[in-house]
Write a structure and sequence with these properties.
The protein is mostly beta strands. Helix content is 4%, strand content 52%. The longest helix has 4 residues, at 3-6.
Length: 90
């Protein structure tokens, strides 16, 4: 029996890299929609999270999959799992 099967399901998100903040660190923005409490129209919201990028493989504009993890620093609570799509070169 492996330890992977006993582990709780962790939160996964897909977002876009907005900035490189330092060595092995990036900021990722993910967007979601919620209904307005009174009028029920869907409102677009976004949240920025600090993400650990161990291989320094992402750059601004890339689409990435991130996974919740233990605290890695004061602000970093997420780590990059996979680079889904590279940003188009302008």
């Amino acid at each position: 029996m492996s330890t992977e099967s006993n582990r709780n399901q962790r939160k996964e998100l897909i977002g876009i890299v907005r900035s490189k903040t330092g060595d092995k660190s990036v900021k990722v923005v993910y967007e979601y929609k919620i209904p307005h409490p009174l009028y029920k129209k869907e409102i677009r919201r976004k949240t920025t999270v600090h993400v650990h990028d161990e291989k320094n493989e992402s750059s601004v504009g890339d689409k990435v999959k991130i996974l919740a993890t233990r605290p890695l620093s004061k602000l970093k609570r997420w780590r990059m799992v996979e680079l889904i799509e590279k940003a188009p070169v302008a």
